[in-house]
Amino acid sequence: MSGIQASSLWKEWIEAEGPVSDFRPDSETVTKLMLLYRAAADGAFQDMWDVSARLYEWLLTLSKRRAEGKGSRRDIPKPYALAAAWMADRYAEDLSLGELADLAGVTKHHFCKKFNEYYRASPIQYLRRKRVEAAARLLRQSRLPIETVAERCGFADASYFGKVFHRYVGVSPSAYRANRTPDVGETLKLL
């Protein structure tokens, strides 16, 4: 995206939220992004003005979210940011909730409650998402068997991995790998 207004809206978003944000799958922002993607994939745009109008409409969903007060991650206390970074770095390990709560210096119950408040996901959901993101990278960048990808990303069972991957991405790991196109980025970010 380019243009003064687009750059301004995007800069405001990045300053408020940082480079990674999470959205509910049924949120207006995700819904409009999927419609935008489908329209582009189907060649439905009539001209550059049509594309611009739809992109600005999508960008405005970000501004609306900020205006409604649905989240800034700037104020996440350091212990919780540290726990999130720990999960992002060690997603392949068997991490326990007790270990993460200890890292944050709080009880498991308090950790779960506050983590969910700050990241809009439970620690387990956050860890699963990090594992799925890593799996998507491996599926795109390697020819490793799916069972090996599952294992390297912290899933003990390939069948369970397939179910979790499908729930988050919308397709099976093998379909995700097979549908690789030059227009699709090399990584998948769920948060």
UniProtKB/TrEMBL annotation:
<keyword id="KW-0805">Transcription regulation</keyword>
<dbReference type="Pfam" id="PF12833">
    <property type="entry name" value="HTH_18"/>
</dbReference>
<dbReference type="GO" id="GO:0003700">
    <property type="term" value="F:DNA-binding transcription factor activity"/>
</dbReference>
<dbReference type="InterPro" id="IPR018060">
    <property type="entry name" value="HTH_AraC"/>
</dbReference>
<dbReference type="GO" id="GO:0043565">
    <property type="term" value="F:sequence-specific DNA binding"/>
</dbReference>
<keyword id="KW-0804">Transcription</keyword>
<dbReference type="InterPro" id="IPR009057">
    <property type="entry name" value="Homeodomain-like_sf"/>
</dbReference>
<keyword id="KW-0238">DNA-binding</keyword>
<feature type="domain" description="HTH araC/xylS-type">
    <location>
        <begin position="81"/>
        <end position="179"/>
    </location>
</feature>
<dbReference type="InterPro" id="IPR020449">
    <property type="entry name" value="Tscrpt_reg_AraC-type_HTH"/>
</dbReference>
<protein>
    <submittedName>
        <fullName>Helix-turn-helix transcriptional regulator</fullName>
    </submittedName>
</protein>
